[in-house]
Amino acid sequence: xxxxxxxxxxxxxxxxxxxxxxxxxxxxxxxxxxxxxxxxxxxxxxxxxxxxxxxxxxxxxxxxxxxxxxxxxxxxxxxxxxxxxxxxxxxxxxxxxxxxxxxxxxxxxxxxxxxxxxxxxxxxxxxxxxxxxxxxxxxxxxxxxxxxxxxxxxxxxxxxxxxxxxxxxxxxxxxxxxxxxxxxxxxxxxxxxxxxxxxxxxxxxxxxxxxxxxxxxxxxxxxxxxxxxxxxxxxxxxxxxxxxxxxxxxxxxxxxxxxxxxxxxxxxxxxxxxxxxxxxxxxxxxxxxxxxxxxxxxxxxxxxxxxxxxxxxxxxxxxxxxxxxxxxxxxxxxxxxxxxxxxxxxxxxxxxxxxxxxxxxxxxxxxxxxxxxxxxxxxxxxxxxxxxxxxxxxxxxxxxxxxxxxxxxxxxxxxxxxxxxx
Length: 422
Ligand code: RNT
Ligand code: ZN
Description:
- By secondary structure, the protein is an alpha/beta fold.
- The chain has a single domain, classed as TIM Barrel (Alpha-Beta Barrel).
- It has helices at residues 2-20, 25-32, 74-85, 119-127, 155-179, 202-214, 245-255, 273-279, 306-317, 337-356, 360-368, 372-381, 387-398, 405-416; strands at 37-40, 93-97, 131-135, 183-187, 192-193, 224-229, 240-241, 258-262, 286-290, 324-328.
- The strands form two sheets. An eight-stranded parallel β-sheet has the order 3-2-1-10-9-8-6-4. It has a two-stranded antiparallel ribbon with strand order 5-7.
- The longest helix is centred in the middle third of the chain and has 25 residues, at 155-179.
- It is globular, with a radius of gyration of 22 Å.
């Protein structure tokens, strides 16, 4: 209680400081509480899924580490996600992949998946007031062994994956209908070549045709939104990726789809924070895969670094919150997986709060008037305003642990639950 009082007092002082800059901390918190971040299921089990426990991860993806306690069943994964969510302020979303279907032990091919195979996930999300998002899984499957799925020149393989894409949109639609908030169903494929291709054109033409087939049937955007995710390269597909940035940017613009920007899918000095305002002039909505590439698309846990802050600033400064869906995409198996979710999501929310606490109008006026000296000076001074006091207060009011108090809770969970898993 003493501690709570101290947090309230610090907040009240911080509020006065921000007020001097024309920033209303209450309004910022209010806005923040309405921002949902989509937590990706795959941090919980190293992108394993439940289709085939022996299937290795491929598609040019790699998870490193062997931390004990990985979720082995949907029940364990939901319990772990519940634990993480209880340590994160606000109401968020959960992002599933097709390989997380629950088929009651029966083998259901991916092109045969139905909404009923996700009914337990839907019930779980509903009981927590959460929306779901979805992804077809175009990897870790024998039909992806050639390295090509939707852009395959084998008609049988291509057709299989088109059918999978169609099935997944219907699942997304069912999720959206059931939960009253559209599912963003995101298409990412691994297709590409390890070595230099002769023909860069044909796979892209095939991919385009496959996407057209997947998206033929209109679905009410109230229930499902289609997104397409580009990539620069994958492990084992270093020389050519059919679904490159230019390809999907063009596709999304021409076909009114959401573009998904993954922070790790560009050249190392490119940043998605600069792309948001560029592409939103041409697509209605975006999906973000907030990730942290370290030298390559390594999918490290998101931290409160400059790029994360810059992404959040762009969303707030541009007033894009209604047009951008924030999803997380990282997978680290070298640390406690529940903690990974909590760290990454809390950082994403912190970055949003920082952006909401910016004296944006004042900074903008300085820029417009050409006073770049003051723009730089003010920009640097506001970096040390008492942000932490506002964040602590938000956690307190949201009923989640303040500061580092959540770490012990995760450690307890590790001792009592995770370490007892085989
Ligand atoms: C892969 C893409 C994709 C995946 C998930 C598992 O590089 O980022 O989003 O991470 O679909
Ligand atoms: Zn991604």
